[in-house]
Amino acid sequence: MRVGLISDIHGKLRPRVFELFAGVDRILFAGDVERLELLDELEVIAPVDAVWGNVDGHEIRRWTAESVELELEGVYFAVNHGDLVAPRFDSLLKLFPTADVIVHGHSHVPRCDRLGSRWIVNPGAATKPRSGHPASVAIALVENGEVEITHLSLADGAPFTP
Fold it and tell me: Helices (H), strands (E): how many in the chain?
């Protein structure tokens, strides 16, 4: 199963997202959408599970959750924007003790940290990246209860290591 991970689009959905997410089975969105219709555009690719971010208004919050927890192919995912714990994103491990993979956004800085058997992943910002990183998304490949995370630059589609 291929899962697209995205965060911090801030009202702009870059065309390359459609190319990089072609064939994903699910999309996990870690907040800061700003325009509800962009979630509908992503739904054309695959089902979307989205949380709201700190800049999302009432309209977005009506249709999304603060956090999402779900099981995909035997792997437990949690999604939260992360603004309430920033900059201590590792504290998400305590908030989601059963999650194998925790996806967050907010910092606009991609990360992929394996802590024991668990992952904390920030796909990076799909717009407005920070700290010299490219605008990015990530793909989680879930197979036989294992997860492999790949970050992809929205500039050229190339994989990179955060």
Answer: 4, 11
Indicate the pairing of strand 75-80 with strand 67-72. antiparallel
pLDDT tens figures, 4-54: 999 999 999 999 999 999 999 999 999 999 999 999 999 999 999 999 999
Instruction: Answer whether 81's CB lies under 8 Å from 106's CB.
Output: yes
Type and span of the H or E element at 42: helix 37-43
Q: Residue 60: is it exposed, middle or buried by C-beta count within 10 angstroms (0-12/13-18/19+)?
A: buried
- The contacts of residue 47 (CB under 8 Å, 6+ apart) are 26, 27
Q: What is the pTM of this model?
A: 0.96
